Amino acid sequence: MSNSNILTIVKDGLIDSIPNLEYDAIKLDSHLKNDLGIDSLSSMFFLTYLEDNIKGFEVNPDTIEARHFNTLQTIFDYVLKSLNLETTAVE
User: Fold this and answer.
1) How far is CA 38 from CA 11, 14, 19, 56, 88, in A?
2) Averaged confidence pLDDT in the chain
3) Phi then psi for 34, rounded to 5 degrees?
4) Which CATH homologous superfamily contains domain 3-82?
5) Domain definitions of the chain by residue range
6) DSSP bridge partners of 71
7) pTM, rounded to two decimals
8) Contact 59/78 with Cβ under 8 angstroms?
9) What's phi and psi for 66, nearest 5 deg?
10) 46 within 8 A of 17, measured Cβ to Cβ
Protein backbone atom coordinates (compact mmCIF):
# COMPACT_ATOMS: atom_id res chain seq x y z
CA MET A 1 0.00 0.00 0.00
CA SER A 2 1.44 3.35 -1.00
CA ASN A 3 1.79 6.40 1.25
CA SER A 4 -0.78 8.29 -0.83
CA ASN A 5 -3.28 5.42 -0.44
CA ILE A 6 -2.71 5.46 3.32
CA LEU A 7 -3.21 9.23 3.41
CA THR A 8 -6.50 8.83 1.53
CA ILE A 9 -7.66 6.23 4.06
CA VAL A 10 -6.69 8.53 6.95
CA LYS A 11 -8.70 11.37 5.38
CA ASP A 12 -11.63 9.03 4.73
CA GLY A 13 -11.45 7.95 8.37
CA LEU A 14 -11.71 11.56 9.49
CA ILE A 15 -14.73 12.10 7.23
CA ASP A 16 -16.33 8.94 8.61
CA SER A 17 -15.64 9.86 12.25
CA ILE A 18 -16.25 13.62 12.47
CA PRO A 19 -19.80 14.85 11.78
CA ASN A 20 -20.24 17.51 9.07
CA LEU A 21 -16.57 17.50 8.04
CA GLU A 22 -15.93 18.46 4.42
CA TYR A 23 -13.16 16.61 2.53
CA ASP A 24 -11.76 19.89 1.17
CA ALA A 25 -11.22 21.16 4.73
CA ILE A 26 -8.65 18.43 5.45
CA LYS A 27 -5.05 19.56 4.86
CA LEU A 28 -1.79 18.06 6.15
CA ASP A 29 -1.39 20.97 8.57
CA SER A 30 -5.04 20.85 9.75
CA HIS A 31 -5.20 20.66 13.52
CA LEU A 32 -7.41 17.68 14.32
CA LYS A 33 -9.18 19.31 17.25
CA ASN A 34 -9.13 23.03 16.50
CA ASP A 35 -9.61 22.90 12.72
CA LEU A 36 -11.47 19.64 12.15
CA GLY A 37 -13.37 19.21 15.42
CA ILE A 38 -12.18 15.77 16.52
CA ASP A 39 -13.05 14.90 20.13
CA SER A 40 -12.36 11.89 22.33
CA LEU A 41 -15.29 9.85 21.02
CA SER A 42 -14.62 10.61 17.37
CA SER A 43 -10.92 9.83 18.02
CA MET A 44 -11.87 6.30 19.05
CA PHE A 45 -14.05 5.84 15.95
CA PHE A 46 -11.23 7.24 13.83
CA LEU A 47 -8.58 4.88 15.23
CA THR A 48 -10.92 1.91 14.81
CA TYR A 49 -11.53 2.95 11.21
CA LEU A 50 -7.78 3.07 10.57
CA GLU A 51 -7.26 -0.38 12.10
CA ASP A 52 -10.11 -1.79 10.00
CA ASN A 53 -8.94 -0.22 6.73
CA ILE A 54 -5.14 -0.20 6.78
CA LYS A 55 -3.74 -3.70 6.52
CA GLY A 56 -1.20 -4.36 9.26
CA PHE A 57 -1.97 -1.22 11.27
CA GLU A 58 -2.86 -1.56 14.93
CA VAL A 59 -2.87 1.19 17.52
CA ASN A 60 -0.23 0.47 20.12
CA PRO A 61 -1.30 1.92 23.48
CA ASP A 62 2.35 2.01 24.53
CA THR A 63 3.42 4.26 21.65
CA ILE A 64 0.44 6.46 20.79
CA GLU A 65 0.51 9.85 22.49
CA ALA A 66 -1.58 13.01 22.46
CA ARG A 67 0.99 14.68 20.19
CA HIS A 68 0.08 12.22 17.45
CA PHE A 69 -3.34 13.89 17.31
CA ASN A 70 -2.03 17.41 16.66
CA THR A 71 -2.41 17.51 12.88
CA LEU A 72 -3.21 15.28 9.96
CA GLN A 73 0.54 15.10 9.29
CA THR A 74 1.32 13.84 12.82
CA ILE A 75 -1.30 11.07 12.74
CA PHE A 76 -0.23 10.14 9.19
CA ASP A 77 3.39 9.94 10.36
CA TYR A 78 2.34 7.75 13.31
CA VAL A 79 0.56 5.33 10.97
CA LEU A 80 3.54 5.18 8.59
CA LYS A 81 5.97 4.63 11.46
CA SER A 82 3.75 1.89 12.88
CA LEU A 83 3.88 0.17 9.49
CA ASN A 84 7.66 0.69 9.27
CA LEU A 85 7.25 2.89 6.20
CA GLU A 86 9.24 6.01 5.43
CA THR A 87 7.47 9.18 6.52
CA THR A 88 7.14 11.45 3.54
CA ALA A 89 4.69 14.26 3.02
CA VAL A 90 2.07 13.52 0.38
CA GLU A 91 -0.91 15.64 -0.57
Assistant:
1) 12, 8, 9, 24, 24
2) 92
3) -70, -40
4) ACP-like (1.10.1200.10)
5) 3-82
6) 31
7) 0.91
8) no
9) -55, -35
10) yes
